[in-house]
Amino acid sequence: MGKSLRAVLRGFGGRRKRALDPYLATRGLVDSAAPVIFDVGANVGATAQRYRALYPRAAIHCFEPYPPSFEALSEALSADSLVSLHRLALSSARGSGVLNVNRNAETNSLLPSDAHAARYWGKGLLETQSKVEVALQTLDEFCEEHSVARIDVLKLDVQGAEYSVLEGADALLTARRIGMIYAEVIIAPTYVGQRRLVDYLSLLSAKGYELFDLYNPTRRDGRLIQSDIIFVSAEVLERYERTKAARKG
């Protein structure tokens, strides 16, 4: 979840331990001065702006289906000629879907809010106030249609629907044409139909990806309820370890 939402959660008892910076970790994992970055669940552009600061020459694709957030995203990034903005949601199949618009826009999701969500996130934050129809496309189809041969960084923050995005990237993952995946994984019951951490580990391990590290863990009542996680392809991990060994030598 976004920075502003995490600030709200502190008032409800959510706690995060000081963690490593995932963006600095990215610098050590991405072997390109002009990487291709997909920001899926771009919201109003804060993550894309952080990546721009790290990589002035990066080609960044931002995906945001919620109209008010997309409007703010456009205002923030329209002057950047290396950013492409897409008002659609990535999922496991092409078509249309229903976005649940919640009290806090950062919790909007293609999945309905779980009845137990308030126990972990506070009363009302995930209360659904309206619904909006949005366009859906798979990552495989998008890359084929836009001639994207490789994604160096795939950032996923789509409120419990991250697994569906990965299901729609089967060809890319099988060929390991995605170097690094930086995903928010929600562990506590928050959305109906969200997948478990073990599901992500199983899917990505089968495709040749390794868990690199966990970032920004959120805990409540001594329980981990959410964490950002970086997964890397076997090739990226091998290159990273060779580079580290060479520096030590």
What is the topology?
Elements: H1 3-10, H2 22-29, E1 36-40, H3 46-54, E2 59-63, H4 67-77, E3 83-86, E4 89-90, E5 95-102, H5 117-121, E6 128-137, H6 139-145, E7 151-156, H7 162-167, H8 170-174, E8 178-186, H9 197-206, E9 209-220, E10 223-233, H10 234-248
Parallel strand pairs: 1-2, 1-7, 2-3, 4-6, 7-8
Antiparallel strand pairs: 5-6, 8-10, 9-10
How would you describe this structure to a colleague?
The protein has helices at residues 3-10, 22-29, 46-54, 67-77, 117-121, 139-145, 162-167, 170-174, 197-206, 234-248, and strands at 36-40, 59-63, 83-86, 89-90, 95-102, 128-137, 151-156, 178-186, 209-220, 223-233. With 249 residues, it is α/β, with parallel strands linked by helices. The protein has a single domain, classed as Vaccinia Virus protein VP39 (Rossmann fold), CATH 3.40.50. Helix 3 (46-54) links the parallel strand 1 (36-40) and strand 2 (59-63). The radius of gyration is 17 Å and the shape is globular. The N and C termini lie far apart (40 Å). The model is unreliable at 7-19 (pLDDT under 50).
